[in-house]
Design brief:
Elements: H1 3-12, E1 15-19, E2 24-28, H2 46-58, E3 62-66, H3 78-84, H4 86-97, E4 101-104, H5 115-122, E5 124-127, E6 132-135, E7 142-143, E8 145-150, E9 156-160, H6 167-171, H7 173-188, H8 202-218, E10 223-226, E11 242-244, E12 253-260, E13 263-273, E14 279-291
Parallel strand pairs: 1-8, 2-3, 3-4, 4-7, 9-10, 10-11
Antiparallel strand pairs: 2-12, 5-6, 8-9, 12-13, 13-14
Helix pairs in contact: 1-8, 2-4
Length: 300
């Protein structure tokens, strides 16, 4: 089974979400929310992420998570992750209750492709203060891919994690999970990176990007947004419309993609120092915004 086949299948089976120029989406991926241990890469950026998500909630954005939201290779279950980052999940719950939450599974949370697993683990949680079971993500569904389809122009934006172009992390993800839990998680505490991860292996990262670009050229020239490699990508109009939102585990910052007012932009949130020495979380525009229509079948 080739990466082209896997990407085409994901596109064919994707959830279609209509949108227009008044719609607003924020795309993050690769949060790798963990258990707040030394191996939890998300813990360093938790406050930045929470502040950014609170901003987007207030501004009426829809949140789309492009996979690897929860680190379920290093951690045995969702419960430990939930307890470590309870405030984050309570905020995501508010998005879900308002119909503004779309979740995509990646290789590190591929167990979410099983609806029974999702229902059992994400629908409810136990609140020890009240000694009661409470609702979390009622009737939530995880998808392999989502297609945002413009109501007027018909333009399609293909959103997926991107590990379809990574045969090891798609086909043999259970082996990858085993190796991470047994070998790489303990070594990560000592600063030794997992060489099978495209985020840590530059040559593999380039190969994965080339496969996705090839799929875009071979098929519909669809504007495609992925994560997985952790490397932000924002092409100019006329180039292959291959975008990457980066990750939420960059050193002291998170990156994402905003889609709003018919435009697309690459943004970063980070902690900055004011003149008086106090700290604040700020949003930085890295690329764009550019009109989405500039990318419609724009490859020369």
């Amino acid at each position: 089974m080739s990466s082209n086949f896997r990407l085409s299948r994901a596109f064919k089976n994707a959830l279609v979400v209509p949108f227009d120029d008044s719609s607003k989406f924020i795309l993050f991926s690769d949060c790798h929310r963990g258990d707040n241990s030394f191996a939890d890469d998300f813990a360093n950026n938790r406050n930045i992420y929470f502040h950014a998500l609170t901003h987007y909630f207030t501004e009426n954005y829809t949140y789309v998570e492009l996979g690897d939201g929860d680190e379920l290779w290093e951690n045995l279950n969702f419960e430990s992750i939930f307890e470590a980052h309870k405030n984050v999940f309570q905020l995501l719950k508010r998005y879900h209750q308002q119909g503004r939450l779309h979740m995509i599974w990646g290789n590190h949370d591929m167990v979410y492709k099983d609806p029974d697993y999702v229902k059992k683990n994400l629908s409810h949680y136990f609140e020890p203060i009240d000694n009661d079971v409470k609702e979390l993500f009622k009737d939530i569904t995880y998808h392999e891919a989502i297609v945002l389809k413009h109501k007027e122009s018909g333009q399609e934006l293909f959103l997926t994690h991107g590990h379809q172009a990574d045969w090891w992390n798609y086909t043999f993800w259970r082996w990858g999970r085993f190796l991470v839990r047994i070998l790489w998680k303990p070594l990560q505490v000592w600063g030794i990176a997992d060489p099978t991860s495209p985020a840590k292996n530059y040559k593999e990262l380039i190969r994965i990007e080339k496969r996705i670009k090839k799929w875009i050229l071979l098929n519909r020239l669809t504007l495609t947004i992925v994560g997985h490699t952790h490397r932000p990508r924002f092409p100019a109009p006329g180039e292959i419309p291959f975008f990457n939102d980066g990750s939420c585990v960059h050193p002291r910052s998170i990156t994402g993609i905003e889609i709003a007012d018919g435009t697309i932009a690459l943004i970063k949130w980070q902690i900055a120092t004011k003149e008086d020495g106090t700290l604040q979380v700020v949003r930085i525009l890295l690329e764009g915004p550019r009109p989405l229509k500039e990318y419609k079948s724009s490859v020369s």
